[in-house]
């Protein structure tokens, strides 16, 4: 084992995405993963939201996921499905795709890049060593990283070793999820009774005309609410039988589990995302109820925000202070997810007063403005980083509009595949050619196919020029020769 510029602890979706981002930046990155291979027992999380699909499109790999998943309207809030089919995005939908497939596809992409994998190794401790961090492994060996990023889940050893606080709220409810065989077939779908919400379905399914059609055979995916907050230990088949009997009056002859796990509505967020050369991303930085299926998506987007910034700092083309913007931008996004998942848990409690509140919320979400606002939030399309006052695009995702360039037709996101900042000029061709800029900033002269539109905000004034960060967010908007471009290039595009 050797030294690396960055060591990522955890090879799930967040860690894989971060490794890919660092590799695109030319950084020597390594993943340490305790599993001996990329196989994941069971399916786990079940889909990708629209903004995550856009992020994958920015790297030119969205098609790999779309080829294997099921396109569907997956955004929802407190049991109300939120249709985004009229949203201004190339992906006005979500994608039903189990986590084991998401990980496999991401790992295939990362394998094409210069990333080192240490599989079958568990991290047991960290030691800061001046300009590096020592990573202690269970077998007694150790390696060093200039930076270490904990992508190792809610019980993150990296977070604990760094002494980063994890304040929040203890669980009030728990549920078991499993992939099993059943002698008797339950009614597939989502059900609610006095104990809570339960769901059944097969791992294999298709979405036909917006309706889920399950395979005739195969393992059954189960989610059943427990009548108590279960212990932190791994649940057994007997625990699952007891929970099914209490909730449904029968255990359906459950047997032969592939895996069984327990989740709760525990809600916590790291008060810092960084301590010196140690950083956190994904569930290591925030945990919450899985309501709305936002956790995996939140982690992948953490990685895309952090990757290019860490890459520039490691490459010496940006100041260390750039890493502080990772926390200032992503902490509020996760805090919002924590708030909306806590609200959803509260709204699905089975007492009559809560049901009444839920009915009021459902009625509100049936109205156009609330529907668009909540759908944009749940799908990740409304993320807005505070980059100051100015054009409505500033700090928001760049729309993937069609472009006409000298080289031929293209799209905005096609120019982000190599994770470089892009300065786009929509005015007189060549007018920005003399602007001093760092060598890695791509210059694109283009005409665009309008209109410019953002979820919730609607149509916005077309800009003359924009600086798009590698993560697809707009860092500067202005007129050719306007103010602020030099400073924006210096701060966001390694121009120090």
UniProtKB/TrEMBL annotation:
Residue ranges of domain FAD-binding in the record: 6-341
Alphabetical list of Gene3D superfamilies matching this protein: 3.30.70.2450, 3.40.30.120, FAD/NAD(P)-binding domain (3.50.50.60)
Keyword Signal (UniProt): no
Pfam families recorded: FAD_binding_3, Rng_hyd_C
Molecular function GO labels: FAD binding; oxidoreductase activity, acting on paired donors, with incorporation or reduction of molecular oxygen, NAD(P)H as one donor, and incorporation of one atom of oxygen
Cofactors demanded by this protein: FAD
NCBIfam families the record matches: PRK06834.1
PANTHER family in UniProt: BINDING MONOOXYGENASE, PUTATIVE (JCVI)-RELATED, TRK SYSTEM POTASSIUM UPTAKE PROTEIN
Protein's name according to its UniProt entry: 2-polyprenyl-6-methoxyphenol hydroxylase-like FAD-dependent oxidoreductase
């Amino acid at each position: 084992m050797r030294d690396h510029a960055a060591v990522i602890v955890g090879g799930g979706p967040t860690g894989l995405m971060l490794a890919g981002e660092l590799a695109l930046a030319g950084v020597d990155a390594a993943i340490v993963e305790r599993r001996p291979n990329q196989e994941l027992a069971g399916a786990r999380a079940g889909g990708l939201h629209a903004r995550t699909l856009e992020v994958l499109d920015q790297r030119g790999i969205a098609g790999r996921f779309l080829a294997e998943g099921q396109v569907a309207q997956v955004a929802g809030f407190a049991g109300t499905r939120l249709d985004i089919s009229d949203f201004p995005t190339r992906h006005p939908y979500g994608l039903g795709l189990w986590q084991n497939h998401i990980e496999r596809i991401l790992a295939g992409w990362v394998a094409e890049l210069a990333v080192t994998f240490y599989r079958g190794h568990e991290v047991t401790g960290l030691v800061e060593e001046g300009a590096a961090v020592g990573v202690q492994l269970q077998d007694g060996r150790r390696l060093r990283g200039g930076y270490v990023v904990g992508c190792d889940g809610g019980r993150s050893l990296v977070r604990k070793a760094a002494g980063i606080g994890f304040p929040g709220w203890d669980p009030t409810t728990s549920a078991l999820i499993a992939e099993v065989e059943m002698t008797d077939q339950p009614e597939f779908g989502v059900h609610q009774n006095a104990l809570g919400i339960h769901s059944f379905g097969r791992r294999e399914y298709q979405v036909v005309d917006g309706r889920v059609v399950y395979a005739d055979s195969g393992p059954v995916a189960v989610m059943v609410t427990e009548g108590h907050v279960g212990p932190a230990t791994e649940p057994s088949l007997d625990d699952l039988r007891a929970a099914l009997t209490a909730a449904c009056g029968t255990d359906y002859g459950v047997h032969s589990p592939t895996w069984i796990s327990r989740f709760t509505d525990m809600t916590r967020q790291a008060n810092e995302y960084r301590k010196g050369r140690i950083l956190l991303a994904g569930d290591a930085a925030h945990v919450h109820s899985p309501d709305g299926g936002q956790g995996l998506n939140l982690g992948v987007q953490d990685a895309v925000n952090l990757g290019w910034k860490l890459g520039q700092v490691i490459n010496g083309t940006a100041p260390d202070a750039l890493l502080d913007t990772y926390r200032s931008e992503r902490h509020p996004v996760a805090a919002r997810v924590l708030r909306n998942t806590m609200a959803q848990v509260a709204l699905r409690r089975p007492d009559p007063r809560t049901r009444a509140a839920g009915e009021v919320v459902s009625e509100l979400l049936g109205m156009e403005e609330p529907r668009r606002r909540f759908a944009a939030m749940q799908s990740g399309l409304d993320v807005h980083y505070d980059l100051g006052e100015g054009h409505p695009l500033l700090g928001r995702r760049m729309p993937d509009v069609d472009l006409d360039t000298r080289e031929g037709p293209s799209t905005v996101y096609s120019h982000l595949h190599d994770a470089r900042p892009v300065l786009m000029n929509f005015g007189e061709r060549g007018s920005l050619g003399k602007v001093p800029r760092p060598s890695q900033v791509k210059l694109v002269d283009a005409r665009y196919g309008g209109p410019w539109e953002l979820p919730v905000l609607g149509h916005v004034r077309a800009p003359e020029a924009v600086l798009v960060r590698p993560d697809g967010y707009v860092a500067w908007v202005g007129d050719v020769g306007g103010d602020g471009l030099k400073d924006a290039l210096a701060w966001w595009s390694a121009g120090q």
